[in-house]
Amino acid sequence: MVGTMVALPPFIRPTRMSKRSARPAGRPPAGDEVVLDAPDDRLSPALVAAGRGEYRAAADLLATTRTGGEWENHDRYVRHLAAFARSRPEWFASWRAATPAKPDALLVEAQLAVDRAWPSPARAELLREVSPLITAAARADDRDPVPWRIALDHARGSRAGHRYFEELWEAAVRRAPHHYGCHVAALRYLASFRPGSHGACFDFAERAAQDAPADSLVQALPARAAFGCLTDGRDHGIPRARLDAAADRALTLSARFPAADPWAAQVRNKLLYVLLRLHRWEDARAELSRIGPYATSFPWERFSEDPLGHFLRLREHLLTAGSRPVPAGLMALVSTPGAALGKRGGHTRAGDH
Description:
Number of domains: 2
Number of strands: 2
Order of helices and strands: EHHHHHHHHHHHHHHHEHHH
Strand order of the largest sheet: 1-2
Shape: globular
Number of helices: 18
Structural class: mainly alpha
Strand content: under 5%
Largest sheet: 2 strands, parallel
Distance between the termini: 23 Å
């Protein structure tokens, strides 16, 4: 039973993990201990094996998460394995040759094809050629929402119409009503359909979070909408209180995960950016502690060709600067254009709504 799932707005209407040395409690990891986009303990062996040209560990990992209905893990591992196959294709070619019709091999192939087409100026045309791969992956296991997440991304990249996108969305949430990847795909489509319409993005994200379980990654969706506002570069018109409420909801979710957890790193790194833009320095320092040694390329690659170096410089400033001004090199990251992001005061934590 699907339960209470949020509907899309009516669009037609107006590296590797490294060992860390012991350190005093509460002290952040040294710069040489911080890693970028570290895989977790389940993915790491599969990547190591793939580096040796062996695909069985990756196949077993995806089969386990798919049969167990671990859709968030399944989606994340598909993305990582497709990215690895893009730079190291030999192991994946062996997998496809050995098991051409297996659901997980088809799924990685579909993700890989979308990833390869995305940077091209001819993206829309190239993506249309990928449709049969996504259809094959979806048919291979009808329970799996991840092919539908790929289809949602594909629809945005190929400039599909609103009615078609809504059909894909309904199929996705029938399979997993609170799947984070599908919700992010829908949020991105909404933002691309109506650039600058951050109110509609917030409406969608907030309804989704309200309907989702307290431990669902969808609780971080409003913070993702806030990230879109804060990186737009235009007057977004979203009240400060709404941005704070989104950050509070994501902080509550982050606190549910263990500190220094690679699984939660992506949510936490994006949240750190939002907190910085809102000048919530103490919350940002607390989130740095939860991030620990696990930096992620996104969002820092938006601001530097060296995302790890950018993260480390930003962290150093937060931990040592006190009330000193932000260095000029980081001003693009933490500047606060517009009155809506003015000096913070009187903030109260948002309730569960």
